[in-house]
Give the backbone structure.
Amino acid sequence: MKQAHSWKFVPGQMQRMLDKAFGPAADVVMPDLEDSVVPAQKAAARALVAQALVRPLVAGSPTRYLRIKGIGLADCPFDLDAVLEPGLEGFVVPKVEGVWPDLDDTRGLEEDCACSRALGFTGKSLIQPSQIEPINRAFRPSADEFAQREEEG
């Protein structure tokens, strides 16, 4: 698996957003069956996510993870039964708190990414497509870092 810098959450009940999310922009796409889906829409969301996961992988497609509430919780068996399909590459169980909430504050996002990178993180979760490029740019190794790795390796 390639190194992933941008991890995009996509509400599982939003067909239009699922359709757009599987393009080549984010490194990882995570259809969400956890808190973005109200209980009355869970069954429909499971069906939409299952349909999205069986789409063929093409060059540049993002890695496909699924966000679920958690193993042992009431919805988990239903989520797994509905979406265990070829194309699903992993699960995200705990809630990821690292999402930058201010969609209009690109500078703040960049600063947050720089701080995260300095702490050793290699990527960041996101909720808005416009956040993909600043996140990828922040976590992509620089030319100096590449040169240093070549010298070491």
Notes: The first strand starts at residue 6 and ends at 11. The mean pLDDT is 88. The radius of gyration is 17 Å. The CA atoms of residues 63 and 99 lie 18 Å apart.
